[in-house]
Structures are given as C-alpha cells and as structure tokens.
Amino acid sequence: MNKNILMLLAFGLALLVILWMAPSKPPASAAKPMQQAAPTENITLAQILTEVKKSIPPYQAAFLDAEQAKVTNSTTKADSLLYNRVLLQYCKDSLRNFILGSYYLKNVALLENSEKNLTFAAQLILDSMMISGQSAIQNWLASSAKELFERSIQLNGTNDSSKIGLAACYIFGNIANNPMLGILPLKEIVQKNPDNVYAQMILGLGGRKSGQYDKAIERFNIIITNHPDNLEAIVNLAECYELKGDKQDAIKWYEMFKSKISNPAIISEVDNRIESLNK
Fold first, then answer.
1. How wide is the angle at C-alpha 168 spanned by C-alphas 162 and 173, nearest 5°?
2. How far apart are CA 276 and CA 78, in angstroms?
3. How far is the C-alpha of 237 from the C-alpha of 231, rounded, in Å?
4. One digit per residue, pLDDT tens: the chain, 279 residues?
5. If we measure between CA atoms, which residue out of 111, 110, 102, 122 comes closest to residue 79?
6. Which of 29, 165, 182, 264 could serve as a FRET partner for 141 with CA atoms 20 to 30 Å apart?
C-alpha cells in the first residue's frame, strides 16, 4: 500500500505539515520493514539555508539572507520574536518549506514559552519527522521537537503527551544510540494507563520499526480492543502481519480497514495489496 496514503491517515497534524513541505522523494513501500537509521552527521542551519537557496529565485534568497541577519543580530526578545515570526510565515507562504520553517517555529515557541504553544509546535515538527524518509532531516526535526518537548515538560511535568512525544523523538529520530531512552518512559505510561492510545501507538510503531512484529501486533491489538474504529492501528496491524509473512491475517485486517473507509483511491490501494497477497 502507498506509504504516503497510510501516513496521511496516521497522523492528523501531518496534514498541516504537508501543506508546507516542498516535494520530496516518497518513502519506501509499506510492504518492507522500517530499518533503524544508521548514525548520521547532524546538519546545520547554514546547510539547510544553502540547500533552500539553490532552489529559489535570487530575490527570495536575498530576502532570506536579510531577514536571517536580523534574527542573528537581534538583541531583544521582542525583536527576535518578530523576526522569527516573519521568517516562519515566509517559509510557510512563499517557500512552502517546513524543514527550514521548523527552525523558526521552534524559535517562536521557545520565545513565547507557553506550554500550549511549545507542545503544539513540538507535535507539528514530530509529525513531519515521522513522514520524512531522509535520515538527516529526521535528525534535524527530532532534535528540534525534543527541545520543545523538554521545555514543555519543565513547565508541566504531569503532561504525558509531551513525555510520549519526547519518547518518539528518541525512537524514530535517530538522535540517540539507545532506543530504551524512549521505550522505558512509554512502558511506564501504559503501565499506569493501558488505554493511553498515543503511547500504545508509539510502542507499536517502534516495534514495527525494529522488526519486532509480534510485540507491535500486541500493541495494535490493545488499541483496537478498546477503539475498534482506530484506522491507524488497523492498517498497521495488517502491515505487521504482512511483514511477518502471515498473509491470512494480513488480508483479514486489510479487509477490516477497507470496510471502514469510503475513499475510492484508498480502497483501490487496499484491493491491490490484498490481490498481491492472494497470489
């Protein structure tokens, strides 16, 4: 099944991110396991700016340089907030580039320093990271989201959603060699509240990413037991069965997924997947 379609279903806020993002190479087929990203050299703002300016007209590049200089040289919080907001809007409306925009989004959220804005910005960046197929960009976005989630937790240490988001940064963002930094906090949360769908989902996706399909299946089944219409859990359950070679159960859950949607294009994708499994 087309991975872009599945991810659009999976992450609601990612719909907002896609409106910002420049066209990029699509991820690999959903019928392949998600591999652990190899360690990658961190990219910098200067590198991002250089890449962006390669694909925009000179007048836009000049504007970007001038406004970035204002950000760099600003001496007051009010000025810094103003210039970062200008560039955030420019990345969104003119450049349509969320990768660069995430830098200014992070800066704005940190300067505003409210739990609501920190968590919203962090989640938006995290959702974009989850649909990125480029390891270096995932690292860039995950590092930004991590900083915002950590600041949010400082303001409210009881916010489990921010803790789950932070865990997802570690699991999927290629920012640490030890995935347990993300997994252990999630297990503590689901032990306290087994019906925390967000935490169970991240654990399931983490199991899928590492090839631990039985563990992932267990997590997705927990979600579906209490939330039988959760499309993300259903489609990931079907794919995990497919990835482990259980065609019968994969078809069963693809059929279940298909019965709960009405979009003809997605139904056609599901039918193609079922047909390939029946061969």
1. 130
2. 58
3. 10
4. 444 334 333 333 333 333 333 333 323 333 333 333 344 457 899 999 999 999 999 999 999 999 999 999 999 999 999 999 999 999 999 999 999 999 999 999 999 999 999 999 999 999 999 888 888 999 999 999 999 999 999 999 999 999 999 999 999 998 887 767 889 999 999 999 999 999 999 999 999 999 999 999 999 999 999 999 999 999 999 999 999 999 999 999 999 999 999 999 999 999 999 999 998
5. 111
6. 29
Residue with tokens 């200014």: 104
Q: Given CA atoms 154, 159, 161, 164 in this order, what sign does their dihedral have?
A: positive
Structural domains for the chain = 1-24+38-166 (no CATH), 193-279 (1.25.40.10)
Per residue, what are the HEC states of the chain?
A: CCHHHHHHHHCCCHHHHHHHCCCCCCCCCCCCCCCCCCCCCCCCHHHHHHHHHHCCCHHHHHHHHHHHHHHHHCCCHHHHHHHHHHHHHHHHHHHCCHHHHHHHHHHHHHHHCCHHHHHHHHHHHHHHHHCCCCHHHHHHHHHHHHHHHHHHHHHCCCCHHHHHHHHHHHHHCCCCCCCHHHHHHHHHHHHHCCCCHHHHHHHHHHHHHCCCHHHHHHHHHHHHHHCCCCHHHHHHHHHHHHHCCCHHHHHHHHHHHHHCCCCHHHHHHHHHHHHHHHC
Other CB atoms within a 10 A radius of the CB of residue 260 amount to: 12
> How far, in Å, are 13, 160, 257 from residue 6 at the CA level?
14, 26, 11
Tokens encoding 143: 């590092």
24 Cβ partners below 8 Å, 6+ apart?
132, 133, 134
